[in-house]
Amino acid sequence: MFSVVKGDPTPEELAALAAVVASVGVPPTPEAAQPNVRHWVRRQQLRLDPAPGPGAWRRSRG
C-alpha cells in the first residue's frame, strides 16, 4: 500500500500510519438518534425514572 523511503519508523508508527491511511476512504458512520424531549416526558408520566439496584443499567437505556 505504501513504503517508507526515508527514516526508520517503529512498528507502532507504521501501524498508526496504516490506520490513518485506511480511515481516509471510510464514510462516516451515522450517529444514533437522540431521544427527544417527548420521550423523557412520557417516561416521567409513566414513572419510569431510573432507579438504583440490580438491572439499573438496562432500565437507563430508555
Explain what you see.
- The relative contact order is 0.09.
- The mean pLDDT is 78.
- The protein is 44% helix and 0% strand.
- It has 62 residues and is mainly alpha-helical.
- It has 3 helices and no strands.
- It has helices spanning 11-24, 37-45, 56-59.
The count of helical stretches stands at: 3
Tally of strands = 0
List the helices and strands in order.
Answer: HHH
Q: What class, by secondary structure content?
A: mainly alpha
Distance separating the two termini: 44 Å
Helix content: 40-55%
| Bulk shape | elongated
Mean pLDDT: 78
Main beta sheet: strand number and arrangement?
none
Determine the strand fraction and express it as a percent band.
under 5%
Taking all Cα atoms into account, the compactness measure Rg is 23 Å
Q: Low-confidence segments, ≥5 residues, pLDDT <50?
A: none
Tag the structure with descriptive keywords.
62 residues, mainly alpha, 3 helices
Brief synopsis:
This protein is mainly α and 62 residues long.
Write the layout of secondary structure elements.
Layout: H1 11-24, H2 37-45, H3 56-59
